[in-house]
Specification:
Belongs to the UPF0213 family. It comes from Clostridium collagenovorans DSM 3089. It holds the Pfam family GIY-YIG. This is Putative endonuclease. Residues 1-76 form the GIY-YIG domain. It contains 4 helices and 3 strands, in the order ββααβαα. It starts with a strand and ends with a helix. The chain is an alpha+beta fold. The longest helix has 15 residues, at 70-84. It has one domain: GIY-YIG endonuclease, CATH 3.40.1440.10. The protein has a 3-stranded antiparallel sheet with strand order 2-1-3, with helices on both faces.
Length: 87
């Protein structure tokens, strides 16, 4: 599986990426080895993820999310958190 994800960094900024193993990727980000951007903004917290069969689909979606405004990214996050919360 391929995952597209958004993490919120310690400074409140958002980082979007893709991976084949989301748990390992989060560990890498939080150990300072995940990405240049997150390296100085740890810890990061997973706020959003989507799953795709192909790497190509995931990369296209990652690109589309990166082009969204911060407000639109938070709309995605809020819908995701609402759909995944226990009521």
């Amino acid at each position: 599986m391929n995952y597209v994800y958004i993490v919120e960094c310690n400074d409140g900024t958002l980082y979007t990426g893709w991976t084949t193993n989301i748990e390992n990727r989060l560990k890498a980000h939080n150990s300072g080895k995940g990405a240049k951007y997150t390296k100085v903004r740890i810890p990061v917290e997973l706020r959003y993820s989507e799953t795709y069969e192909s790497k190509s689909e995931a990369l296209k979606r990652e690109y589309a999310i990166k082009k969204l405004s911060r407000a639109k990214k938070f709309e995605l996050i809020n819908k995701y958190e609402q759909s995944n919360s226990c009521v």
